[in-house]
Amino acid sequence: MLENVENAVRVAAIGVYVPPRRESNFELLAGFGVDEEFLRHRIGVVSRSVKEENERASDLCLKAFSDLQLPGVDLSQIQIVCVVTQNPDRNIPHVSAVLHEKLGLPSSCMTFDLSQGCAGFTHGVTILSALMDRMHFDHALLFTCDPYSQIVDKRDKNTALLFGDGAAVSYLSRTGTGYTVVDADFGTVPGSSSCLRCDEGRLYMNGRQVFVNASREVPPSVLRVLDRNGLTLADVDQFLFHPGSRHMIEALKKNLQLDGERVPFETVEFGNTVSSSIPIMLKRRLERPDHRQLVLCGFGVGFTWGTCLVRLIS
Amino acid sequence: MLENVENAVRVAAIGVYVPPRRESNFELLAGFGVDEEFLRHRIGVVSRSVKEENERASDLCLKAFSDLQLPGVDLSQIQIVCVVTQNPDRNIPHVSAVLHEKLGLPSSCMTFDLSQGCAGFTHGVTILSALMDRMHFDHALLFTCDPYSQIVDKRDKNTALLFGDGAAVSYLSRTGTGYTVVDADFGTVPGSSSCLRCDEGRLYMNGRQVFVNASREVPPSVLRVLDRNGLTLADVDQFLFHPGSRHMIEALKKNLQLDGERVPFETVEFGNTVSSSIPIMLKRRLERPDHRQLVLCGFGVGFTWGTCLVRLIS
Q: Of A59, A71, A200, B226, which sits with the fewest C-beta atoms within 10 Å of its C-beta?
C-alpha cells in the first residue's frame, strides 16, 4: 500500500522518558498470594516505573521530548502535535495544546489528542502518516503517555503488578533513516468495551477477557497484513508486540510459532507503559537499525488492536 | 489538493440530536445584570438545549445515530467509528468503543476518539478523510458530542448563557451526493492553552481572549485556504463559522466584509453545541443542496482553529 518510498513519512527519531523511580513487585507478592515464579514467568515485571505524585501526562511528555534528537529541524517547522492518552492532565484543553504552549510551537501547528489505549501508538502513527500525506506536511510530533499509576488501585491483584509510567515522542519526517508504515490492520472486538475501564478514577481490568481477545485477534491480524503485502512470517525481522505480560507474549509467540529472538520482551524493569511500550522498543531498533522489516502490534482498551507493518527506509 | 473527485471521501449523510428540553436564558438575565438587548445581539442564544441528567456522551451519540439515514450501507460495512469529544462518558474506554458495542459493529471496525473542542468537526472530517484514503476505506462514522451542561457552572456569567447540549454523526462515504474536503488549514495560537479549560469538573473561559484569538486567526485562515485553491471570498456560497456567539459571527462577517445571507447563525434556540455546531448546520445544506461550495471554520479550545473548504460532489 505504500506507493512512494522516496518521500514517505517515517518515524525518524524517538525520545523516551521512563521515570527513574521504581517500585518493586517482590514486596507485593505475599499480599496477593503470588510466588516469584509466577511473577517472573507469567507477569514478567519485577519493578514498575512510577512518576512523581504531582507529575501529569504533559510533564512526562516534556521529559520524553528532552530525550529527542531532532535531526536538522527546528521547532518552528513542526506542523502537528498529537498526544495519545487516556489519562490527560485534564480533559479541556487537550494535552497537545499544553505541549504546544510549553514548547513554544508556531501558530501554524495543529494540535489534537487521540484517545486510544495500548494500541494507541499503532493508531497514532498510521493516522498521522495519513494526515501528513493529505496535508502535504513534512514534520510532526506524536507523543504517547498514559500514566496508569494515577488510576491503578494498588490493592488490585489484576492490575497492580503490571503497569509502569512512561512517555515517548516520535518525530515523523520525510527524510533521514526511519521506519515507515507500509500497511496496517485495525479492529475492535464486539461486545468487549468494558474489559478495560476506568470508573471514578479507578482502573478495572478483566485480565482473562483481555488475554482471550488478544490471543484470538492478534495472530490473524498479523497474518492479514503480511499476506496483503505478499510476505510471510519469515520475512519479518522482529515482532514488537505490546508487552501486556510475559504470558501474553509467550502465547502469541507460540500461536504464531515464532522463535524467541524475534519477539522481544523488554519491560521487566519498568512494566507495561500502555501506548508508550512499542515506541520505547522501537527507539532501540532505530538507534541500531539491524532490522529492516518489523511488525508492531498494540492491543488493549476497547478491546482494540492495531498492527503495523513497518519498513526501514532512508 | 483534492486529486480525484470521482472517488473522493464525502460527508454523505448527517444525523443530529438536540435534546428537546430547553432552559431559557431570559430567566438568568437579572442575576447576571444583563439586558435582553445584550442577550439577543451579543450572545444570540435565547434558550439552551439540556440533556437529561443521567445521559452521557454515548447516549446523545446514539440518539444522533437514530436520526441518520444511511444510504444503502449496512453497519457491517463500517470501518471507522471516531468520536470527537472532550466530555467522554469516562476516559477509559474511548466513547467510540462503547458505540461500537451498542451499535453491534463488526470486529474489522477501528475505534478511537479525538480530543478537540469547537474545531473538532473540521479536524475530524479531515483526519478521517485522510485515514480512509490511506487505508482504502469506504465507510466511516464521525460522531461529535460535547455535553457542556456537565461542566458549565450556572453561576458563571462567562459561560452560562452560551452552550447547549447536542450530538451529530456524519457518515463518510465514497458514493452519493455529499461534501468533500478540498483543502484545510489548521493552527494553534501560541500561549493560549488556558483560555478554555476545565478544572475539577468546571469550565473556565476567558471570553475576551477567545474573541481576540478568533478575530485575529479565522479571517487569514479562510483567505489562505481560498487563495491556495485559486478562489476568492466571492466563490463561496456559504461560510459555516462556529457560532461561538452572535457577536463573534458579526465580527467575522465584518472583518471579511461578507453579506449576512452567506454567514448563517442558527443556534438561537439551543446554543453553542461545541463540535456539533457545524455538522448541525451542514445537515441542512446536505438535505437541500443549493450550495456548492462552503467554508467551514471551527475555533475554540486550545486555542485552535480548523478551516475546511468543502465542495458538493455526487
A: A200
